[in-house]
Amino acid sequence: MKILLVNDDGYGAQGIVLVERLLQKYGEVFVVAPKHHQSGKGTSIDFNRPLEYEKIDDHHYILDSVPVNCTMFGLYGINQKFDLVVSGCNHGYNITLDTMYSGTIGACTQALFSRVPAIAFSCQFNYDMVEKHFDEVMEYILTNNLLSTSYLLNVNFPVGNKFKGIQITKQHTPKIDYSFTINEKEVRDDRTSVISNPKRGTDVYAIFHDYISITPLQINQFNEKYYKEVKKKLK
Question: Based on the structure, what is the number of domains in the chain?
Answer without folding.
Answer: 1
